[in-house]
Amino acid sequence: MAEQREKIIVKTSIIGIVANIALAAFKAAVGLISRSIAVVLDAVNNLSDALSSVITIIGTKLASRQPDKKHPLGHGRIEYLTAMIVAGLVLYAGITSLVESVKKIIHPEAADYSAVSLIIIAAAVIVKLLLGRYVKKKGEDVDSQALIASGSDASFDAILSASVLAAAVFFLITGISVEAYVGVLIAAFIIKAGIEMMIETLNDILGARTDKELTVAIKQTICEDPEVLGAYDLFLYNYGPDRNYGSVHVEVRDTLTANEIDALDRRVQANVYLKHHVILTGVGIYAVNMSDDEAGTMRRNVIEKVMEHSYVLQLHGFNVDLQQKTMRFDVVLSFECDRDEALQEICEEVQTMYPDYKLFVQPDIDVSE
């Protein structure tokens, strides 16, 4: 599966390289002949797209290397570093384009468009639209953010090329040259795209919130097991595209034996991997009091009291030992509250309800709810 994914990414990137180099050559020739800075900058943008595809291929090859002693979880995150380099190239191309366009505004030079040049630009718009649709579709098929981004960028380039064509037509009709200003517009869009790519890649490297649809789906899969009463504290760790590890806590009856818990652990790990391709490195256990009515009543009372606070998103893992007089539970707190003050308030309220019990309250982070 990984090898097939790599082949598709490389093949699609090669098609992108050939198409962009051809477009860059034609546009550069047209731009130089017609003395149009907008067309030349559009050609530079195509050339940067080709270079981006080259870097994508290199990054994919490096990221697919097998785990080794220094990198036991593989090299998948190299794809994120590759994306950062591509974003830097895009940003550099945008800044350079902006400088050249401003120079052209300050020192204008009349453009000279021909019918052939206009036909070439129009053809480039069509090619870019088809290329963008193809690359994006392939990226979605193999879950490659790099290809999806390249496809979207190609479609966006088609719109920019269309604006250059519009500027040329406007010049031929009115005799007024606006292509330098169009060059500024193109440069602004390129810079914006580069910044957005950098921000998105930084979020991947820093660890952004996990996609809610994925976390909900994983929890549903876990809860399909008849022995699981609830799934909580799901943490996912990404080590590159399609390389996800995680940990989770599950609530089970306190009457389960060690052998039954071990079997449950293995079933949950297998099911999550088969359905979501996520490796659960740990499945923690919350034992729920099921055989004592008093413990059940206490659980309902505590949940009702604690959930009155708007900053409490969830309470789980409740367990009470009636003999040892201990009570344990976790609360998921909103990022908008002061965690220390919120935890203190919760503990004081529950302690007032059950003064004879020793409390162990764990504040959890809202990472996937």
Please provide a written account of the structure:
This protein is an alpha/beta fold. The chain folds into 2 domains: 2-206, Alpha-lytic protease prodomain-like (Up-down Bundle), CATH 1.20.1510; 212-365, 2-Layer Sandwich (Alpha-Beta Plaits). It contains 10 helices and 6 strands; from the N terminus they run αααααααββαβαββαβ. It has a 3-stranded mixed β-sheet, covered by helices on one side. Strands 4-5-6 form a 3-stranded mixed β-sheet, with helices on one face. α10 links the parallel β5 (326-333) and β6 (358-365). α5 (145-174) packs antiparallel against α6. It is elongated. It starts with a helix and ends with a strand. The model has no long low-confidence stretch (mean pLDDT 82).
- Strand residue content: 15-25%
Per DSSP, the total helix count is: 10
Please outline the major beta sheet. Answer: 3 strands, mixed
What value does the Rg take, in angstroms? 29 Å
Q: What is the count of β-strands?
A: 6
| CATH fold node name of the largest domain | Alpha-lytic protease prodomain-like
Alpha-beta classification: alpha/beta
Unreliable parts:
none
Summarize the topology:
Blueprint: H1 2-34, H2 37-63, H3 78-106, H4 115-142, H5 145-174, H6 179-206, H7 212-223, E1 230-238, E2 244-253, H8 258-276, E3 278-288, H9 293-306, E4 312-321, E5 326-333, H10 339-353, E6 358-365
Parallel strand pairs: 2-3, 5-6
Antiparallel strand pairs: 1-2, 4-5
Helix pairs in contact: 1-2, 1-4, 2-3, 2-5, 2-6, 3-6, 4-5, 5-6, 7-8
